[in-house]
Design a protein that fits this description.
Helices cover about 50% and strands about 10% of the residues. The protein has eleven helices and seven strands. It has a three-stranded mixed beta sheet with strand order 3-5-4. Helix 1 packs antiparallel against helix 2.
C-alpha cells in the first residue's frame, strides 16, 4: 500500500512539473493528491476488511476441521435416497426370517438334517451327497458352504426362492465351454457375492449367536446342574460354579470365569471324557500307590 502511494505521489509531481512555468506544483497535501489517494485508501480499507474477514473464516474453518466433508449435491442425493428407500429394508423375504427349524439346526450335526434339495423333493442326510446331487443333477453350485451356519435353513430358503421367481433374477448363470467346440452348459452359481445370499448367511450367523447367548444365560442360573468331578469321585449338585471352584481349589484345574462359559456339559463331560487325557489322569490319580 505504501509503495503504491509513493508511486502515485511521484506521478502527481511529474504531472505538475510538465505543466510549465504557469503550472503550480502539487504537494502531498494538495487536494489533487488527496483525490488521487482516495481510491487507494478505500481499496486498502477494503483489503483490511477482507483480511479480517478471511482470518475470521479461517478460525471458523479451523474449529470445524472434524466435520465430515460432503458436496451439496451428494448430500441432496443421500437425502433423497433415504427418503425414497423404506426403513429397515431387507432382501430376504419375511418368511425366511422366521424359519420353521429349531435352534438345533444352527449348530450342525443331526439337528441340521435332513437337507432338502433346492429343486426336487429329495432329502439328504449327508451334506456332501446333497452338494454332489445339486451339481450332477441340477447343475447348481454353492460357494463357501463352510460359512453357512445351517445348511437345512439355507436350502429351505433357496428352495422357496427358486420356486417363486425366475432363477436369473436371484442367481448367476455361468456358461461352460464358451471358447471350445464342446457343447455349452449353463450352471447356476450361488454365493455370498449375491446380496440376498450374503444377507441370508449373516442372518443365520446372527440367529446362532442369539441362541448361544440364550443357552449361556440358562446355564448361568441353572440350579439343577449335577455332575461328577473330572478328577475325583465327588458329585456336585446346584450351580455349576460349585464344581468349578472345587476343581480349582483341589485339582488346580482352572477354566476361567464360569459366567463366561457355554455348553459346559458338552465340552467337558461329553467331549473331553472318555479316551482322553483327563480320564487317564483320573485313573493315575486313583490308582493304588504300590502300582
Amino acid at each position: 500500500f505504501l509503495a503504491r502511494a509513493a508511486r502515485t505521489a511521484l506521478m502527481a509531481e511529474a504531472g505538475a512539473a510538465s505543466v510549465g512555468d504557469g503550472g503550480v506544483a502539487r504537494s502531498i497535501g494538495s487536494p489533487s493528491f488527496q483525490d488521487a489517494m482516495m481510491p487507494l485508501a478505500m481499496e486498502g480499507a477494503c483489503d483490511e476488511e477482507n483480511v479480517s474477514l478471511q482470518r475470521h473464516v479461517d478460525v471458523g474453518r479451523h474449529g470445524e476441521l472434524l466435520r465430515p466433508l460432503a458436496f451439496p449435491e451428494a448430500e441432496a442425493d443421500a437425502t433423497s435416497s433415504d427418503a425414497s428407500s423404506p426403513p429397515n429394508s431387507s432382501l430376504i423375504p419375511s418368511s425366511a426370517l422366521s424359519p420353521s427349524c429349531s435352534a438345533s439346526c444352527l449348530f450342525g450335526g443331526a439337528g441340521d438334517l435332513p437337507v432338502p434339495c433346492l429343486v426336487c423333493e429329495e432329502q439328504f442326510s449327508d451334506k456332501q451327497e446333497f452338494l454332489q446331487h445339486l451339481f450332477a443333477r441340477h447343475k447348481i453350485v454353492i460357494r463357501k458352504t463352510e460359512d453357512i451356519c445351517s445348511m437345512k435353513m439355507y436350502a429351505e430358503h433357496w428352495k422357496r426362492r427358486l420356486a417363486s421367481v425366475p432363477v436369473t433374477d436371484v442367481a448367476v448363470i455361468i456358461k461352460t465351454n464358451c471358447d471350445s467346440d464342446l457343447p455349452s452348459e449353463d450352471y447356476i452359481f450361488i454365493s455370498d457375492a449375491l446380496p440376498e445370499d450374503k444377507e441370508l448367511r449373516a442372518h443365520l450367523q446372527k440367529k446362532r449367536l442369539e441362541a448361544v447367548l440364550e443357552d449361556q444365560q440358562k446355564e448361568r442360573v441353572d440350579q439343577t446342574f449335577s455332575r461328577r468331578c473330572l478328577f475325583c469321585d465327588g458329585v456336585f449338585t446346584g450351580n455349576r460354579s460349585l464344581i468349578f471352584q472345587h476343581m480349582l481349589d483341589t485339582h488346580s484345574f482352572c477354566v476361567g470365569n464360569p459366567d463366561n462359559l457355554v455348553f459346559v456339559v458338552f465340552v467337558l463331560w461329553e467331549d473331553l471324557q472318555g479316551p482322553s487325557c483327563l480320564t487317564r489322569a483320573h485313573e493315575e490319580e486313583t490308582a493304588p500307590e504300590d502300582q
